[in-house]
Amino acid sequence: MAADDVTATAESERDARNKGFQDADEVLPQYHIEAQTSLVERPLRSLKYGEAFAVLDSYGDIGVLPGPEGLYFQDTRYLSRLHFTIEDQRPLLLSSVMQDDNGALSVDMTTPDIRVDAHDETTIPRELIAIERTKFLFKGSCYDRIGLRNYDSRTRKLRVGLTFDADYRDLFEVRGMDRALRGKRSVQVASETEVQFRYVGLDEMVRTTSLHFGPKPHHIAPGQATFEVTLAPGGRASLFVRTVFECHRAFTSAPAAEQVGEDAAAGLSRAAGSSPGPRHPRGLAEGVIFARAYRDSRRDLRQLTAGITTIISSNDQFNEAACRATADLYMLASRTPEGIYPFAGIPWYSTVFGRDGIITAMMALWVDPNFAKGVLRYLASTQAKAIDPAADAQPGKVLHETRRGEMAMLGEVPFRHYYGTIDGTPLFVMLASEYYAVTGDCETIAAIWPALELALDWMNRYGDRDGDGFVEYARDTDKGLENQGWKDSHDSIFHADGQMAKGPIALCEVQGYVYAAKNGMAKLATMLGHGDLAGRLEAEATALRAAFDTAFWSEEIGTYALALDGEKRPCAVRSSNAGHALFTGIALPERAGRVAATLLSKDGFNGWGVRTIARGEARYNPMSYHNGSIWPHDNALIAMGLARYDLKPQASRIFEGMFDTALYQDQKRLPELFCGFMRRNQRGPVSYPVACSPQAWAAAAPFAFLAACIGLEIQHDRNRIRLKNPTLPAFLDGVSIFNIKIRDSRIDLRLQRYGDDVTVNVLRRTGDAQVSVVK
Length: 775
Description:
Elements: H1 3-18, H2 21-25, E1 45-49, E2 52-56, E3 70-73, E4 76-79, E5 81-86, E6 92-98, E7 105-110, E8 129-138, E9 141-150, E10 156-165, H3 171-174, E11 184-191, E12 194-200, E13 205-214, E14 219-221, E15 224-231, E16 236-249, H4 256-259, H5 267-270, H6 286-305, E17 310-313, H7 316-332, E18 333-336, E19 339-342, H8 354-363, H9 370-381, E20 401-402, H10 406-410, E21 417-418, H11 424-439, H12 442-463, E22 506-507, H13 508-527, H14 531-552, E23 553-554, E24 559-560, E25 563-564, H15 577-584, H16 589-599, H17 632-644, H18 648-663, H19 696-710, E26 712-715, E27 720-724, E28 734-742, E29 745-754, E30 757-766, E31 770-774
Parallel strand pairs: 27-31
Antiparallel strand pairs: 1-2, 2-3, 3-4, 5-10, 6-7, 7-8, 8-9, 9-16, 10-15, 11-12, 12-13, 13-16, 14-15, 17-28, 18-19, 20-21, 22-25, 23-24, 26-27, 28-29, 29-30
């Protein structure tokens, strides 16, 4: 660590102690994710399909060590242990990789030195038996194949064991919350090849986990199955485990999704990929079932990604990072009746989040506008229609989060349908205008127009609590989130002296979202023939921009304040939030240079990215969730903002830092966030202990960085693709972009860097769309 970083950190910690911040923070915050072990300690592997996801260790096992590992469906852990052994020993791990498209986990192992007991000579030397394991999720089932091959010159007999359990813990329990009461769990051997776990919850839902084995185990018990395997020289054998998970109401056999049709968010379960899974003819071999499911899952993934825009660059490592980002986006995508929706992240946030889905769709808009279409239609269908203090809901407000677990259904946590987000509603309108600008999809805009009008009314009526023109938040009950912007930690909004801001709170970035939403809504209103509304919105946006600059600009810190508290006092804190004022265009042009300088100063930019809170601020902590850490999506929005004001070198600098970060990550995958310690020579960034990986808006970030640097604009109304002052960072000599879509045209582009200059060539064009380059 650089000396100045050590000094600044020590000073910040000393100041915090002197001001007594620790006393105020001793109580664990709401909905805290407990961390007694770090997710960094061992690489975890993630699978996802629909509302189900699996968190596995590198072996493909579950629950061998404490942690979040498990097979989850609708926020409940349906399998808490699955441990594979040979002669009661764990195999030796050779490799563990996700397939390039995240479709399956492939693990290579071999036998260790095996003894019959501790006093015998080695009876099977290591590395004689090769073990290949393949796991994937598809339509209500987790499929697991364990293949064995004997490379010895003699026949070998092996005892293969599987131990398993299902604890049916709610995800919030896994995260660390305690419960006084739980439902009833049971387990039985259902047949000579099946064990079934059953949990009757306090919410009157029955959750079942059925493990189907093939071939028939030599011994089967409620928590264990054992196979006797004989392998001739060169011989092969395969074992299969199919875990089927289902949920239905007590006293019925109907799947849960059919029982809760009145529940708008239950549409997730009615979509493809939900329980129950496909029914197989009785007696069909598990190997055949595995093969068919694997084939169908590959077809399903190819169908989901057909026709998207793709990237190939001169840098092989960037190509790997872009490939992983694409795979992560589509793994996190879930089908709903309204279209695909990117779930936020694994393991803690694998569900619909309004803000996360909107921002992910914005950043990926030029790659695949279907994300934006699905997000818009889904959020329109779940928009609040009434005042509900327990859910922080008012008419027109856009959903923050929906959960399907037992604790949410019982109201033990407020997230069944929770609307406690101040930024989701203006972002929803903002996304609609951007989606239309790229696609010209009048049909979708017309379909969601009533929801857009309700969102606009919410901003003016409920969002602006005191009529001062700014949108503020304050939770309606003590169960709601204390802070309701994207930085929603309990201590993330504070004054320069470190004291917590008291609400209602008007966040810097939210005013930018409202500004962009009103300008975008004005364009949509003009398109639909609502001229009076368009004129009013343009005037409101202009007035907001002026008022914002007056209230939020702080000459003392050289940037926009983090927020205004309930007394309209600015929180004069240097934060990344100010970069969102560039992203939305609310920042005055004459302010842009100073905002950029503050963001990219040594206190703001640590060499990898822009910190959420600048070093030296009262509550700065590089290991915190929101007060000094670095978030890739936050940096991507900042880069888009810098490009908007033609500050391309600064945008490229952030892009370079994030690319370097990806090189140090497992699978070159950008995480949800990482720590804000200063960059040091020959060392990578410091990981955050419980970061989600993959995370949707982190996965979309590379596409936003690239679009920002090359100044990419898809202008449907002009039938034109425009590149405004394109630049490429130092690690990219050239980039080819294939299948950019505009109206009925498809275009391939090649960008080549020559020093500071970039040339653009059209490699292929079908249709009559134009390409222009503006310097």
